[in-house]
Specification:
alpha/beta; Rossmann fold; five-stranded mixed barrel; uridine phosphorylase activity; EC 2.4.2.1; Purine nucleoside phosphorylase DeoD-type; Nucleoside_phosphorylase_d; purine-nucleoside phosphorylase activity
Length: 239
């Protein structure tokens, strides 16, 4: 396969920076470009998945939507790492809290991801592979979040295969007991793909709703706010 790929219309590797921030929502990618990047240019809009490259405090960065769920997002992760020589992908997204102390608008840094997804079954047999982010990048993000005064939690996240899932109550209680912090839908695929290609990955979340208190943010807030998470990702993005 050559570039442009079937899913990314950038005609040159140079159109995309070494680091790409990836929200699930392409409109959130557009929001980040418009509000944080200087001299940004759009490099893709294939299938409505928007991507932009610009400068944050003089540092060249790209931002692009990934779609929802592991199968959709892994298409983009693979193509960016393999065909566009991207070195680092930072997922920025919303998540649902699974712990009482992880509150609405808190930030979560994923230290690993668990999932009911079967994507790795043919790779590792009966071994349940647990992908993790790049440690140095994770540590940098944690220290930076503390420096900025953000309420930040570090721990395992659950990358669910289903948005509208009827998770068994016993399973949910076990995930809580074993200190899984929140549920989202893409990090398991991101960390796995990064490990496959020897690249870097990180996942940063803003808590948009709570499975404990049943609080929830509006769709507009999910798309157009959560600026602490965006700023943190841009601050720690490698050049």
């Amino acid at each position: 396969m050559s570039i442009p790929t079937p899913h990314i219309s950038a005609k040159s590797k140079d159109e995309i920076a070494n680091t790409v921030l990836m929200p699930g929502d392409p409109l959130r990618a557009k929001y980040i470009a418009e509000n944080f990047l200087d001299d940004y240019k759009q490099f893709t809009n294939t299938r409505g998945m928007l991507g932009f490259t610009g400068f944050y405090k003089g540092k060249r960065v790209s931002v692009m939507g990934s779609g929802m769920g592991i199968p959709s997002s892994m298409i983009y992760f693979n193509e960016l790492y393999k065909f566009y020589d991207v070195e680092t992908i930072i997922r920025v997204g919303s998540a649902g809290s699974m712990q009482e102390n992880v509150k609405l608008h808190d930030i979560v840094l994923a230290t690993s991801a668990c999932s009911e997804s079967s994507i790795n079954d043919n790779l590792f047999g009966n071994i349940h592979f647990s992908p993790t982010p790049d440690f140095d990048l994770l540590l940098t993000a944690y220290n930076k979040s503390k420096e900025l005064g953000y309420i930040t939690h570090c721990g395992q996240v659950h990358s669910s295969d289903q948005f509208y899932s009827n998770i068994d109550e016993k399973v949910f209680k076990n995930l809580q007991q074993y200190d899984v912090l929140c549920v989202e839908m893409e990090s398991y695929g991101l960390f796995t793909t990064a490990r496959k290609y020897g690249k870097k990955a990180l996942a940063i979340f803003t808590i948009s709703d709570s499975l404990v208190s049943n609080e929830a943010d509006s769709a507009e807030n999910r798309q157009n706010s959560y600026t602490q998470m965006m700023e943190l990702a841009l601050e720690v993005a490698p050049k």
